[in-house]
Write a structure and sequence with these properties.
This protein is mainly α and 108 residues long. It has one domain: AhpD-like. The longest helix has 23 residues, at 75-97. The protein has five helices and no strands. The chain has helices at 5-17, 22-27, 39-52, 63-72, 75-97. Helices cover 61% and strands 0% of the residues. Pfam families: CMD (PF02627). Residues 1-20 are annotated as: Disordered. This is Carboxymuconolactone decarboxylase family protein. Residues 10-20 have a biased composition (Basic and acidic residues).
């Protein structure tokens, strides 16, 4: 979503060590069409994408995206999701600013 090869490399490696399947990791790039994501996961992904691409539109987080996320997650879970999205975005900006290169983040 954010175009960061460092993020893609790091998070894919982390997820592969956990319980996430390769199938779902590969399908993430096409999450809207992929049948392997739940409605709650789609709401979280839509919110993450909207926050990530805020400068692409005049209404950064459209009501339909916000309302779907608020419908799927209670207040605490939604707050946690927003903070996690923000933390990933912060990391992406640091990586872009300091011109991090895939493999140099200690993930290999």
């Amino acid at each position: 979503m954010n175009g960061s090869s460092v993020c893609l490399d790091m998070h894919t490696r982390e997820d592969r060590k956990g319980t996430e399947s390769d199938h779902r990791l590969f399908a993430l790039a096409a999450w809207r069409e992929a049948p392997c994501f739940s409605d709650s996961e789609r709401a979280a992904l839509a919110l993450a994408e909207a926050v990530t691409r805020m400068s692409d539109r005049t209404n950064p987080v459209p009501d339909e995206i916000w309302n779907e996320s608020a419908r799927r997650f209670d207040e605490q879970a939604l707050a946690t999701l927003i903070l996690k999205i923000g933390m990933v975005e912060f990391g992406n900006r640091v990586n872009a600013t300091t011109k991090q290169i895939v493999g140099e983040c200690g993930c290999e």
